UniProtKB/TrEMBL annotation:
This is M42 family metallopeptidase. The lineage of its organism: Bacteria, Bacillati, Bacillota, Clostridia, Eubacteriales. GO terms for molecular function: aminopeptidase activity; metal ion binding. SUPFAM superfamilies: Aminopeptidase/glucanase lid domain, Zn-dependent exopeptidases. Transmembrane segments: none annotated. Zn(2+) 2 binds at D188, E223.
């Protein structure tokens, strides 16, 4: 499989997914796009009752059932109240770093399908007006959304159809530089979803299949900690493909695939992690092994839900997670390589063309 020929597909798929708003619980559009891509490559898909996507990839041999997972939901906001002045007060979905959102553009989705634009701001937004413009906390009690509509009262907002519980989605500001950097909010974890869809394209184009029957799960509630509860408990192995962390005493860079030995939920399976390290070494994959102290993945949820599978976690190195994130196409490519090696993709087969 020649991955260099598919770098454009990898980056274009990432950009496509990143520009579709999809905070946890509001993922129908991005899941439909991922399903459209997978079906276009010739793969069978199905949906979970919670809205997740499963892509079925037949293997060459019987003996194991393998799972891959990546989450397609993102961080976000929701309207929790409307002030008498027509300001939208907010509550977090997942764990966005609110100080990084001060001044960011956003979209507000009403329950009847209307979409409005606005700006996320401090309640003390102007240096020429407020003494505490620089020092006021940037948190849920001190930030709001300024609507791009003529509103002076809560009744004006209500007349637009905007209500408590409406989703507020931040502009990801997705950019790809000539030097190969992908800069965007929500690379965690749409970058990994793009990696897995690229692997499917590689297999489809070459006629190759994994060694064992494989199901790829794109989960939709990972950022609120119950995305993987629908992953079958009787899988033999589960490989989560999520972001790798960059910073402090971590060794991973944005140009590598990270292999996580342990996160806040505990260690990953020793044999499976060791196998991934061996595969990376033997095949010149640029990798790092790290321990993530402030991190958990879909694996923890799947295991806590009763899963009896061996599990591990890999992903491209991502800088500034839950803020304005950045990775490099090299790290994404190394992630695709290691995932393909893990699946033991083999000889061409006409049935997958």
């Amino acid at each position: 499989m020649e991955l260099n020929d598919h770098r454009d597909f990898l980056l274009n798929t990432a950009k496509t997914l990143l520009t579709i708003d999809s905070p946890s619980g509001f993922t129908h559009q991005v899941t439909a796009k991922a399903e459209e891509i997978a079906q276009g490559l010739g793969y069978e898909t199905r949906r979970t009752n919670k809205g997740g996507l499963i892509i079925l990839v037949p293997g060459r041999e019987q003996g194991k059932r393998i799972g891959l997972c990546a989450h397609i939901d993102t961080l976000g906001l929701m309207c929790r109240a409307v002030t008498e002045r027509g300001e939208l007060m907010l509550t977090k979905i997942g764990g966005p770093q609110l100080p990084t959102l001060d001044g960011e553009y956003c979209r507000i989705y009403t329950r009847d399908g209307r979409v409005y634009t606005g700006t996320i701001l401090s309640l003390s937004p102007a240096s020429h007006v407020f003494d505490d413009a620089l020092t006021r906390p940037r948190d849920e009690q001190n930030m709001y959304v300024r609507l791009d509509e003529k509103v002076r009262t809560s009744a004006d907002v209500q007349a637009l159809g905007i209500e408590v519980g409406d989703y507020i989605c931040m502009d990801p500001k997705t950019t790809v530089t000539q030097s190969g950097f992908l800069k965007s909010r929500f690379i965690d974890d749409k970058g990994s979803v793009a990696c897995l869809l690229t692997l499917l394209k590689l297999m489809s184009a070459s006629g190759m299949r994994p060694r064992y029957d494989t199901e790829i799960h794109f989960t939709v509630y990972e950022e609120v900690s119950h995305g993987a509860a629908t992953i079958p408990a009787d899988l033999d192995e589960l490989l989560a493909v999520d972001m790798g962390c960059v910073g402090l005493d971590l060794t991973c860079s944005e140009y590598q695939v990270s292999i996580c030995a342990k996160d806040s939920a505990g260690p990953y399976d020793y044999d499976l992690v060791s196998r991934l390290i061996r595969l990376a070494k033997e095949n010149n994959v640029d990798y790092a092994v790290d321990v993530y102290p402030h991190y958990t993945s879909d694996v923890a949820v799947a295991l806590q839900a009763g899963g009896d599978m061996k599990a591990a976690l890999i992903g491209p190195g991502v800088h500034a997670s839950h803020g304005m994130e950045r990775t490099h196409v090299d790290g994404m490519v190394e992630t695709v390589k290691l995932t393909a090696l893990y699946l033991e993709c083999g000889a061409p087969d006409e049935s997958i063309r």
